[in-house]
From TrEMBL:
<dbReference type="InterPro" id="IPR000847">
    <property type="entry name" value="LysR_HTH_N"/>
</dbReference>
<keyword id="KW-0804">Transcription</keyword>
<feature type="domain" description="HTH lysR-type">
    <location>
        <begin position="1"/>
        <end position="58"/>
    </location>
</feature>
<keyword id="KW-0238">DNA-binding</keyword>
<protein>
    <submittedName>
        <fullName>LysR family transcriptional regulator</fullName>
    </submittedName>
</protein>
<dbReference type="GO" id="GO:0003677">
    <property type="term" value="F:DNA binding"/>
</dbReference>
<dbReference type="GO" id="GO:0032993">
    <property type="term" value="C:protein-DNA complex"/>
</dbReference>
<dbReference type="InterPro" id="IPR036390">
    <property type="entry name" value="WH_DNA-bd_sf"/>
</dbReference>
<dbReference type="Pfam" id="PF00126">
    <property type="entry name" value="HTH_1"/>
</dbReference>
<dbReference type="InterPro" id="IPR036388">
    <property type="entry name" value="WH-like_DNA-bd_sf"/>
</dbReference>
<dbReference type="InterPro" id="IPR005119">
    <property type="entry name" value="LysR_subst-bd"/>
</dbReference>
<comment type="similarity">
    <text>Belongs to the LysR transcriptional regulatory family.</text>
</comment>
<keyword id="KW-0805">Transcription regulation</keyword>
<dbReference type="GO" id="GO:0003700">
    <property type="term" value="F:DNA-binding transcription factor activity"/>
</dbReference>
<dbReference type="Pfam" id="PF03466">
    <property type="entry name" value="LysR_substrate"/>
</dbReference>
Length: 297
């Protein structure tokens, strides 16, 4: 007994007309008759009472129609789901990201994913104490956005865009884009920064800025959460340096002054991952990133 035979049977059970059913199923009337006869022989059950004038279901045929109809609907749903998984339109993708892209790039990307792949579930992770690489290699994450390319050969990275670092000060601060001459203007200011002793790419960039200006920042508050840093700056508790993407937060009472230093954004994934979902997401990532090269001077 084949699935196609059951489909022929259910179609005939609805139409109760061989010629109309054959036309709907794109086969000849004689071929349909042979398929129904073969099914009856396989089951050992008479499914239809037929004569030259009419076709009607037997009691056994009506029973099988009622039992097989929901089963066939379920099979069709399963097949459709399997096709969506194969095409990368269904499933779950786990994405890691730094807080700096939470206000612009990530919302735009998630919007794009929601429109293109509405049945895909997205899990977002902002790691703090575990590295992106470790999470990717342990299959706890499928894709990660980061400020430096991956070093592990099992991972693959692609450059997306570049943006400047920015000095962030309270709105009432004396410095503006117009009168700012360099980091030496801030020798007596209190800073809110990540721990500069960390070995991350971001903190290495911060250290480079301070070393170039030969100043040691007076760090009064340390935190790795950019959103918290912005909130503290807006309260007048200090100044900071962040990627310019944080300006998209539109937080009141802060001013961004661009610096002559840039930071990059990369997307990283497992080199061996051939998932259709990943392929679809990477295509959307590239499309969104094409609008995100931030040129500020």
């Amino acid at each position: 007994m084949e699935l196609q035979q059951i489909k022929y049977f259910l179609a005939l059970a609805r139409e109760l007309h061989f010629w109309n059913t054959a036309e709907r199923m794109f086969i000849t009337q004689s071929a349909l008759s042979r398929q129904i006869k073969a099914l009856e022989n396989e089951l050992g059950v008479l499914l239809f009472e037929r004569n030259k004038r009419s076709v009607k279901l037997t009691e056994a045929g009506a029973f099988l129609r009622d039992q097989w109809t929901p089963l066939l609907d379920e099979i069709n749903r399963v097949h459709l789901q399997a096709r969506k998984i194969h095409e990368g339109a269904f499933g779950t993708v786990r994405i890691g990201y730094p807080g700096s892209i939470a206000y612009g790039f990530m919302p735009d990307l998630i919007t794009s994913i929601s429109k293109a792949l509405p049945e895909l579930k997205v899990d977002l992770v902002e790691p703090t104490d575990i590295s992106f690489e470790q999470l990717l290699l342990n299959y706890q994450m499928d894709m990660a956005f980061r400020r430096d390319p991956a070093e592990n050969p099992a991972l693959q990275s692609e450059f997306l865009y570049s943006e400047p670092y920015a000095l962030v000060v309270p709105q009432s601060h004396r410095l503006t884009e117009a009168n700012f001459t360099g980091m030496h203007d801030l020798e007596n200011d209190k800073f809110i920064l990540s721990n500069l002793a960390q070995t991350t790419y971001y903190t290495a960039g911060l250290r480079q800025i301070f070393e170039d200006y030969r100043i040691t920042p007076d760090v009064r508050i340390e935190t790795d959460f950019g959103g918290m840093v912005l909130g503290l700056v807006s309260k007048g508790l200090g100044v900071t340096i962040l990627p310019y993407s944080y300006s998209f937060s539109a937080l009141p009472n802060v001013r961004f002054i661009t610096l002559p230093y840039r930071t990059n954004l990369y997307v990283t994934w497992r080199r061996s991952d051939n998932s259709p979902v990943l392929k679809n997401i990477l295509k959307l990532v590239t499309e969104v990133a094409n609008h995100y090269t931030i040129e500020r001077s």
